[in-house]
Write a structure and sequence with these properties.
The chain is of the alpha+beta class. It has helices at 12-16, 18-37, 40-70, 77-103, 112-137; strands at residues 6-7, 10-11, 155-158, 165-170, 179-184, 187-194, 197-202, 216-218, 221-223, 230-232, 238-240, 249-255, 258-262. Helix content is 41%, strand content 22%. It binds FE2/S2 (inorganic) cluster. FE2/S2 (inorganic) cluster is lined by residues 205, 207-210, 224, 226-229, 242-243.
């Protein structure tokens, strides 16, 4: 599912995270090696690398948090994985800040206590980083799926009118088999155009909450990108598992060139 924190379609968080990982890992290595070999210049380098790593962590965390709130499907297994990723990485940052404070300055030799705190931070960083990788490779967070006839990714925010309807799109806005993610009052819906007209359904797979807007729709069937469940977009019924429950669908009207969805 395409990242909300992206520049011209390129997600920012994955582009920034190699910097804190490299700096923090390098800092631990230089501190340990400096202490073992009695090299003050090495542990001073380690301290400066740790400070650079912490600064880059803050920078990388900003787009990461935007993706956590706006990109990861809510109430999904990906969301709980993203939460664990964030907690572990924040724990790592807290450990490295503590190590830097205990140590004081770059000239001070890292004590066994400082190295132990840094080792704990490194372990948390690796565990959190592993979950971050799973978020991309398994949950396809920040992956911009394209498929034949799928058109460009489309994503917008709408508010419901007093009569309980929202304007989803102009009549010719989407091509056949193209989908559009709509964020409405904290909910996420998908408006899609089939050969027989527009349909709307929940952007949440009934299996583990995968975003259907990030999936594939062909001939009136949408396929979830996470484990391949398929649903009839007109009735919401399951066409293929692993899901065993249908998805929520909405009534759609097309009048005067405007597509409206009744919530
Ligand atoms: S979340 Fe598993 S098939 Fe959709």
């Amino acid at each position: 599912m395409r990242s909300k924190a992206s520049i011209d379609g390129h997600p920012v968080h994955p582009a920034l995270i190699p910097f804190p990982f490299a700096f923090l890992t390098g800092g631990v290595i230089f501190d340990v090696a400096g202490r073992l070999l009695g090299r003050p210049a090495w542990w001073a380098t380690g301290h400066h690398l740790l400070l650079a790593g912490l600064a880059m962590s803050v920078l990388a965390a900003i787009p990461g948090f935007v993706d956590y709130v706006h990109t990861v499907p809510p109430r999904s297994s990906g969301w709980s994985r993203a939460t664990r990723h964030m907690v572990l990485v924040l724990g790592a940052v807290a450990a490295f800040v503590t190590a830097a404070l205990v140590r004081g300055d770059a000239a001070a030799e890292p004590t066994v206590l400082v190295l132990a705190i840094e080792a704990a931070g490194f372990a948390l960083l690796m565990a959190g980083g592993s979950l971050g990788g799973e978020l991309v490779m398994r949950d396809q967070i920040s992956v911009d799926n394209r498929y034949a006839g799928g058109g460009k990714w489309s994503d917008s925010t709408a508010t419901s009118d007093e009569d309980g309807t929202i304007v989803g799109a102009k009549a010719n806005e989407l091509a056949v088999d193209q989908m559009k993610l709509l964020r409405v009052d904290g909910r996420r819906l998908v408006l899609a155009r089939t050969a027989n007209g527009y349909v709307a359904f929940d952007d949440a797979c009934s299996h583990e909450g995968g975003s259907l807007a990030g999936g594939t729709m062909i001939c009136g069937t949408v396929q979830c990108p996470w484990h391949g469940s398929q649903f009839d977009v007109r009735t919401g019924c399951v066409r293929a598992g692993p899901s065993t429950r249908g998805i929520g669908i909405y009534h759609v009207d097309e009048t005067d060139g405007v597509v409206r969805i009744r919530l």
